[in-house]
Amino acid sequence: MADKTEKNSPASGSPEEVAEKRREKRYAVTGDIQKYVKLRVKSGNEFVPAILGNFSRNGILFECPASYSQGEHAECSIALCLLLSREIAFGIMVKYCYADQGSYITGAAIDTISDETWFDAFVEVHDLIVQRQGPA
Q: What mean pLDDT comes out for the span 72-88?
């Protein structure tokens, strides 16, 4: 991780500008829900833990100790520590990455999903967790 340099917002636009271009709903993952989600992102030859901020079928936002370059591809896995024990593997292409209080915030496009059915189940379980939490 120490060999990676800090990245500024990409030349193609700020995270806010990228968010405005989205064509689908992003599922926010609040602190109450984050305790049930295990996200790992490959950095170099190893996977590092990450905190999921939001996701959709085509994109993801996460925070982790590793920095990524715009256009870089990385492997990820996500699992719910609730009822399902199966991990969902997927690939991403980084859209932006910037330093934030000792870690990095990364926004990326999901370019491959190992199992569409399990990804759909993940979305449904997320919705169930949100409903059980009630209004914020």
A: 81
Question: pTM to 2 decimals?
Answer: 0.73
Residue 119 resides in a domain = yes
Q: Which of 49, 50, 72 is nearest to 61 (CA)?
A: 50
Domain range for 60 is: 15-133
Q: Considering only CA atoms, which of 87, 109, 89, 106 is closest in space to residue 38?
A: 87
Band (pLDDT 50/70/90 cuts) for residue 13 is very low
124 to 11, 18, 40: CA distances (angstroms): 35, 25, 20
**Residue 6 within a domain:** no
Q: What is the CATH number of the domain that holds 35?
A: 2.40.10.220
The residue ranges of DSSP E strands in 3-101, in sequence order, are: 27-28, 37-43, 46-55, 59-64, 73-80, 88-100
Residue 3 belongs to some domain of the structure: no
Number of domains observed in the structure of the chain: 1
pLDDT over 60 (residue 4) = no
**Closest to 21 measured CA to CA, from 59, 50, 47:** 59
State the maximum Cα–Cα separation within the chain, in Å, rounded to a whole number. 43
